[in-house]
Amino acid sequence: MQTGAVGIIGAIGLIASVGCADMHGAGGASTKAMEKPGPAQGYTVHVVAPHKFEDGTVHGPYHHYCKPISQDVIQCLLFESTDPNALLTDIEYFVSKSISRSQVPLDTWNKYYHDHEAEIATGRVQVLDMPEAQAKEIAAAAAKTDGIIFHLWPSGAKAPNGEVGHPQAVGHKPRTE
Length: 177
Known about the structure:
Layout: H1 3-24, H2 32-35, E1 45-52, E2 58-68, E3 73-79, E4 88-96, H3 97-103, H4 106-112, E5 113-115, H5 116-121, E6 126-128, H6 132-142, E7 145-151, E8 168-169
Antiparallel strand pairs: 1-2, 1-6, 1-8, 2-3, 3-4, 4-7, 5-7
Helix pairs in contact: 1-6
């Protein structure tokens, strides 16, 4: 196990557990749904970043709500706004670099993946809804991962059409090795 992956899970897991604890504390009431967490609970890390689509246009920023699901993977649900009824438009996986770079061929990585360290360095990524020190810890943990985005709902469409896009981070740089 790479220490970077432990750092990712530790930093984000702390924030996720605090978010879950807050859900139970609302008014002291607890419902059965809150007693047994489901897979949709725990997306408490809020990140915003724009995406560059395959046609070169930049969209967003997209609101990423993320949670760790293993030592090597963080998954995020992406929305175009913070409206309670916003459509889920994308899913992004943050995969530890030790996994993505050893398991994904370079040409596939260059087409679909992006380096979160390079993306964060552009200054276009913001971690929201937490103190600045914690946001910096989250960004440092995310920098140890690569991302792959699956765009599911075409911009402006009334329904998804079955096509899946793979936007990139703005400023994506292909790897040579």
